[in-house]
Design goal:
Blueprint: H1 5-14, H2 19-23, H3 30-38, H4 45-55, H5 59-63, E1 71-77, H6 85-105, H7 127-137, H8 148-154, E2 158-162, E3 171-178, E4 181-189, H9 195-212, H10 223-241, H11 244-250, H12 259-267, H13 271-280, H14 286-298, H15 318-328, H16 334-343, H17 350-356, H18 370-381
Parallel strand pairs: 2-4
Antiparallel strand pairs: 1-3, 3-4
Helix pairs in contact: 1-3, 7-10, 9-10, 13-14
Length: about 375
């Protein structure tokens, strides 16, 4: 029986376990586990079944040899401060699998082509100009963006949403290079159940794609350089969601916090972000900004702003629509899809696919008919 050591590494990190954590759960040493992962030795049958039980991945997952390779160029996380390396690695692994599932499904369906404008990276990028260029390229004019998640998906950017292993990881972007083209995957955390927060998070990740996709290795940046990337991505998000000329014109009463409630209805951006944008555009002074944020804090809008508990959060729809189309057109049932995924040399549990693609639980599980239920009941009685 073949054993794929890299699959053990993937499964372990996916479950957010160190080698020492895994050692405590099975009957071999961490030195042996390390050798398994490096492909130096293969586990005996009894150990292999322990790995299957503890890591909750199918046996075939550990024995498949897959020649499909992807090159992850970078993963942009919103914050690295106070986040465990293992937590970051877990999210990276999950995102790699999301991209793999996307490419598997793309073999059955024609997903939207990646549509991004060409940016001259040899010159200093003006962020305000970059956002206006992107809006023009996507035909948005300067109108408010109701659903940026849908906008990203329609322009060929992969988007999913899931519960991250750490609340400090709220959104991130992974860049893949497959053959001669790039793929961008944005993952949005489900911790914040706010439509406007998700809008800004998605715009922030879009900023990394537009401004920073040419960077060689984000992990080699200093803390100061990393913080600068985050400042630029935040600036991009504010500028993209709130075009300077149109938003500036809307700031008729910029020192009145209540006025931002009406603007929030129009622009679908948080009050705190709009106040910050007003300061960025010099529509209010530093003192006026501080006074507005003091009042903002006094009203206890820091966690939940007005309308946040009313507006429904946007969920990615591409994967949901893809599965629905395959099932309704009798191309693949949920069970058949999982079988074909195994033939694709990537056998995982159906529940993992549903989580990673932000599908409703049970989407890929066929419901038994009443006749089937009666038959099983009859067999049991007799």
């Amino acid at each position: 029986m073949n054993f794929n050591g890299d699959r053990l590494r993937i499964a372990r990190i996916y479950r957010n376990m160190t080698i020492s954590d895994l050692e405590k759960e099975i009957s071999v040493t961490k030195q042996a586990i390390s050798q398994y992962e490096k492909g130096i030795i293969a586990p005996k049958s009894e150990v292999l079944f322990q790995l299957v039980s503890v890591l909750r991945f199918p046996l075939d997952f550990f024995t498949e040899i897959d020649n499909r390779t992807t090159n992850v160029e970078n993963t942009f996380f919103r914050s690295l401060s106070g986040v465990k390396k293992l937590d970051l690695n877990t999210e990276e692994i999950k995102t790699e699998i999301i991209v793999r599932l996307y490419n598997f499904l793309n073999g059955y369906l024609k997903f939207p082509k990646l549509e991004l404008p060409t940016i001259d990276y040899n010159n200093v990028i003006d962020i305000e100009e970059a956002t206006l260029k992107l809006r023009g390229f996507w035909g948005l004019n300067n109108d408010p963006i109701e659903n940026i998640v849908d906008l990203l998906e329609r322009n060929g950017i992969i988007v999913s949403a899931l519960a991250t292993v750490s609340t400090k990881i709220d959104a991130f972007t992974q860049i893949h290079k497959i053959k001669d083209h790039h793929q961008f995957c944005v993952v949005l955390g489900n911790e914040k159940q706010s439509m406007v927060s998700r809008n800004f998070d998605a715009a922030h990740e879009l900023g990394h794609i537009i401004l920073h996709s040419k960077l060689s290795n984000v992990k080699e940046l200093s803390n100061e350089e990393f913080k600068e990337l985050e400042v630029e991505a935040n600036h991009f998000a504010a500028s993209f969601l709130l075009p300077k000329n149109d938003f500036f014109a809307d700031l008729v009463n910029p020192t009145n916090l209540e006025a931002y409630l009406q603007l929030k209805k129009k622009w679908k951006v948080s009050i705190s972000a709009m106040v910050m944008r007003a300061r960025q555009l010099d529509r209010i002074s530093s003192l006026q900004y501080k006074n507005l944020m003091k009042l903002f804090s006094y009203k206890k809008w820091g966690k939940v702003e007005p309308y946040d508990d009313v507006w429904k959060i946007q969920r990615p729809q591409l994967f949901r629509k893809a599965i629905k189309m395959l099932k309704e057109n009798n191309v693949l049932t949920g069970q058949q899809l999982m079988i074909e995924l195994s033939k694709y040399k990537f056998t995982i549990n159906v529940e993992e696919v549903e989580v990673l693609l932000d599908l409703d639980p049970g989407t890929l599980v066929e419901k038994r008919s009443e006749k089937d239920k009666e038959l099983k009941l009859s067999i049991k009685i007799n």
